[in-house]
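S.,

Sequence below, as promised.
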Amino acid sequence: MGPVRARLPAVRSGHDREILRLAVPAFGALVAEPLFLLGDSAIVGRLGTAPLGGLGVAGNVLTTVVNLCVFLAYGTTAAVSRRIGAGDTAGAVRQGVDGLWLATGLGVALVCVGEPLVPYAVGLLGGTADVAPYAVTYLRIGLTGLPGMLVVLAGTGVLRGLLDTRTPLVVAVTASVVNLGLNALLVLGLHRGVGGSAFGTALAQTGSGVVYVLVVVRGARRHGVGLLPDRRGVLGSMASGAGLFVRTALLRVTLLAATAVAARIGTDAIAAYQVSFAVWSLLALALDAVAIAGQALTGRFLGASDVAGARAATRRMVEWGAVVGIVAGLLVLALHTVLPYGFSTDPHVRSLIAAALLVVAVLQPLAGVVFALDGILIGAGDSTFLAVASIVSTAVFLPAACAVLLTNAGLTWLWCATGVWMLARFATLALRTRGDRWLVTGARR
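The prediction came back faster than expected:
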């Protein structure tokens, strides 16, 4: 946690430099994170189909839990950046310390609650008789890495709030490499099976968490901040995270509902949906990088009571989101007939993938703007509104998805329903940012 820049960007070129300085490393860190599970898959796949299937089931559970706790990163980013903008560096570090305590406590609680529920979670996700034992083994061991992973989320939020996205990139890449090495040693070298893979990943995640703790502790000592948890601070972090939890949970509901509809359309449809959704998810990482810049810069300007600066930065980040979305859309458009050949030998499935990717391409500019607006309001600490907006957009999507299923309209129309969902998100977020109620200034919202 090095010295904080006192001067905020005031001109368009300054905004561009700051956005790029934050977004590019953030994109690298976001890409590095999925490499944990990808590395596990590459090594466990050598053990056979059933162990790989078990990893898939267990990994889905762990990923869902971590995604639901992403408020630890988002909420901490907003709180820390506001404090920094207000010139209260010690207060910002205090927010970071409390965020780490909240992450640790939540992680330990989830391990204690989750361990006896492991067999039920595996059964709920449809683990077959040959896959279930591997899934249970991986999940029980993998849960031990959850506190470290949640600390990573909170620590990442602290550094983003300080406009540092390079350190999270270094930690994420290093952890991915270490994870791959540990998995190779434990699974292929020591023949510890799926349990060895889970232990290696948990160890890498815990090590990453320790790194963030050391960084925050160093900053706390530098600024004379105590390391014991502050009850009011921890409770405040929990309260601010509640709205973000609802927002994230409803996002997951939407995505799971879309998968469920695709599965009920037919085998070819779900296969094509998985491919097109993988492309969507990869592009979302680039759009999320702009959103992360939005979180940090918005909180910083509002903390400094610079409403004009927040407005100017908002406009520029929305422009960046649109540009990145247009580039992503054109890329998918150029490759939409080529990509299907890399995923299927079935001509019908390839045609479904190509048609779905056309809609994915068209939606990218809109998605870029939505992601940017979402990040801006997260940075503003407007979590209650984001929860309400998510309720509205989910309420719009679910009937549209059901209509696709009831009319047997097909996969392309399911992606069109996703477009309706994105339009609903855009409408609510754009209306909010056009007004002034989100522009709450000062160190606290």
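Residues 239-445 form one domain.

Coffee later?
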